[in-house]
């Protein structure tokens, strides 16, 4: 870590309204401490992707603010914002791979931007492909891959440069149970190394684990604790506490 901050993501009274009047997020507050792994769940349209997009700064809030590792995203721009973004690895719901580039070239991107050595990039890429059961795809164009393979390449790219924060949007949506476990094992190893993770998922096999911290969104809001939640909140915000299972 580059700072001593204990809080990696501080979201305060965040709202996002899309034209004409779609309330994707409404007054959401949430704290994610450094080193935590939090699962963000909720029905389709609940606002999970919107929240992740606001945290990595590719969308701007209508109201409220987001701080990442002490940086208020509304107050930084240019090279400072870029430097912060390099510390965030994002696995997008729709992958956003470069289709005409190979698997290795796609995974290398975040490491090249950070001036990692060729040796580091090659080793890290091969290691990640081995962990995700994609060893034989190193030199294949991503347009030739299955959806589940593309999804794993997007995950490898997100974690490759050892980011401080990983945002993963439905990272197991196209995967069978065994491959899902490979991905979750990789995320757990990142977490053991100190990386903070926020994972949006519908997949109960992913988040219904002992000790999982789950934030549940519904209609753009963090839901209050219901009967089906345990009463052990963690990492929650200042006032609008709710929706965390532990
Ligand atoms: N660019 C946009 N313009 C207009 N409406 C949008 C836009 N992006 C998202 N929305 C709307 O905001 C709401 C939240 O969408 P979001 O993609 O965050 O949901 P989600 O929880 O990620 O859903 P899913 O589980 O299907 O991925 C939805 O009603 C969606 O239609
Ligand atoms: Mg989504």
3D architecture notes:
- This protein has 246 residues and is of the alpha/beta class.
- The chain is built from 7 helices and 11 strands.
- The chain has a domain of 136 residues: Rossmann fold (3-Layer(aba) Sandwich), CATH 3.40.50.300.
- The strands form 2 sheets. Strands 3, 6, 7, 8, 9, 10 and 11 form a 7-stranded mixed sheet that branches. It has a 4-stranded antiparallel sheet with strand order 2-1-4-5, with helices on one face.
- The C terminus is likely disordered.
Helix tally? 7
CATH superfamily assignment of the domain at 1-87 and 198-246? P-loop containing nucleotide triphosphate hydrolases
Per CATH, the architecture of the domain at 1-87 and 198-246 is 3-Layer(aba) Sandwich
What is the CA-CA span between the terminal residues? Answer: 26 Å
What summary fits the major beta sheet? 7 strands, mixed
- What integer value in Å does the Rg equal? 18 Å
Structural class: alpha/beta
Number of strands: 11
The secondary-structure element order is: EEEHEEHEHHHEHEHEEE
Q: Which whole number gives the mean pLDDT?
A: 90
DSSP helix fraction:
25-40%
Per the principal axes of the C-alpha atoms, what is the gross shape? globular
Content of β-strand: 15-25%
> What is the CATH domain class of the domain at 1-87 and 198-246?
Alpha Beta
Ligand inventory reads: adenosine-5'-triphosphate, magnesium ion
